[in-house]
Specification:
Length: about 475
């Protein structure tokens, strides 16, 4: 007894010493000890093979971290295909997520859907194989949570919202895991059950074809779990397009809890150019700023800003040499030379507005992204301005016009989306003549420079024109 008591006291002393000498380690031990294994889970999926894998990886981490900030009482699970990079897996695990590695589910409908983004969406069926949980809320990465939605775990065996009047949306749905249902779904894939879109939504819509006739879900006050299938109120899947019409939320059925962003993949909220084109993109980036941050993109953004500033300085200092390279006399094929020079000048201006858009990190904050874009466009325009001796104001007019468009779209006091659209249209209508004037000014300047150069001696050691030559002109 004395030995046992002494051992207990010794363990307590050792623990106290560790906590005093190594507070970080003790905090980690305490955190590990406090980890809970919940009976419910929020889950999402991740797979590779599309041009936008990194963007969806970032979106997944932001969504899951936002759920942590909302203090959800559930595990956070990522169903990741085995080809997801290991450093991504480790980062998600460090976020507190549970990563389940799976083999990709073969999609027999991929021949009917040319969009590579949907070829592996059948991995979503693995949610039914998470049999360690009583209920699972399955999510797409393009959801923006406004508040805790743990009450959804009270729903039945399958529950989803109808964004489309006749087709429920699979960006968020509740399910009861079942190995039997999972195996039956795989069997239905093998026999190619009818599928309207070749992706998970068409398959699940066919599998739960009677959901439209089911009752609406309302959380029981005693926190018990329901049985059966239910329709979720629209407030759990608020289509972002509803917001753009009124520029505010007005969804009366159910709590306004989750925003979803269906539609064109290039206008997802995590892309910097989505705001202010789509105002809700800023809300997503604010959520990212408060959760994940921008540490991965900022070094690249800083390097680009330095590069653009360097281009502006160098092109200005090297202006005489640039113009000598461009305006040179040729005795043969003068017409072709002039046409090629005009094309090169116009192409360089177009490239100045395209290249920055491509090379800026796609998931950077919109304010940083647009600032980099305008700086990059101006710096690349300076190459054309100094090389071809073009008027600065005419070349940078599109840059000024883009900045004005951003101000018009970002104005926060529009009555509704229709008024906002009319103002944008009116601005574009008024600005288009200025763009045309700037184009004609650039073209005229090029023509004058080429005609003047034809009568000047070449800068490459040519003899001057014979006496009296200029008198003819």
């Amino acid at each position: 007894m004395l030995l046992s008591r002494a051992a207990e006291i010794g363990v307590v002393v050792v623990v106290m010493v560790v906590m005093i000498l190594f507070p970080t380690a003790s905090a980690a031990v305490e955190e590990k000890a406090q980890q809970q294994y919940y009976k419910n889970a929020y889950a999402t999926m991740m797979y590779m093979g599309t041009p936008r894998d990194y963007e969806f990886y970032i979106a997944t981490r932001v969504m899951m971290r936002s759920l942590i900030r909302l203090h959800v009482q559930a595990d956070l699970v990522v169903i990741a295909s085995i080809d997801v990079p290991l450093h991504w897996v480790r980062s998600m695990e460090e976020d507190g997520l549970k990563v389940v590695r799976v083999e990709n589910v073969y999609n027999p409908y991929k021949a009917n859907n040319s969009n590579d983004r949907f070829k592996l969406t059948m991995n979503k069926l693995y949610a039914w194989n998470l049999v360690n949980y009583e209920r699972v809320i399955m999510l797409d990465a393009d959801n923006l949570f406004l508040q805790n939605t743990d009450e959804l775990f009270q729903c039945g065996q399958f529950c989803a919202s109808f964004i489309n009047p006749c087709i429920f949306h699979t960006g968020l749905f509740v399910l009861q895991p079942s190995e039997k249902v999972f195996k039956d779904m795989l069997h239905q894939l093998d026999i190619k059950r009818p599928n309207s879109d070749g992706a998970d939504q068409g398959f699940l819509g066919s599998y739960f074809s009677n959901l439209l006739d089911m009752p609406m879900f309302h959380p029981p006050p005693n926190a018990t779990k329901l049985d059966g299938h239910y329709r979720l109120p629209l407030g759990y899947q608020m289509d972002a397009s509803y917001y753009y019409l009124k520029l505010r939320w007005n969804v009366p059925c159910g709590p306004n809890s989750v925003i979803t962003f269906p539609g064109a993949v290039w206008m997802k909220p995590w892309y910097w150019w989505s705001w202010p084109v789509l105002p809700l993109g800023f809300s997503w980036h604010e959520q990212r700023r408060n959760t994940l941050g921008y540490g991965a993109e900022m070094p690249m953004a800083i390097l680009e800003a330095i590069l653009y500033l360097g281009i502006i300085v160098i092109t200005r200092l090297a202006r005489p040499n640039f113009s000598k390279l461009c305006y040179r006399r040729f005795d043969k094929s003068v017409t072709a030379y002039h046409a090629g020079l005009k094309f090169l000048a116009m192409a360089s201006i177009v490239a100045a507005y395209v290249v920055p858009f491509i090379i800026i990190p796609h998931t950077i904050h919109p304010i940083v992204g647009w600032s980099l874009y305008l700086l990059g466009s101006f710096s690349l325009c300076s190459i054309a301005i100094n090389a071809f001796l073009l008027p600065m104001l005419a070349v940078v007019t599109p840059c000024i016009g883009i900045f004005g468009t951003l101000l018009v779209m970002a104005y926060p006091w529009y009555k509704d989306g229709v008024v906002r659209a009319l103002f944008v249209f009116a601005y574009a209508f008024c600005a288009s003549p200025l763009l045309w004037v700037s184009f004609t000014k650039v073209h005229a300047t090029l023509q004058v420079s080429l005609e003047r150069e034809a009568f000047l001696p070449s800068r490459l050691n040519e003899s001057p024109s014979p006496p009296g030559f200029n008198k003819l002109y």
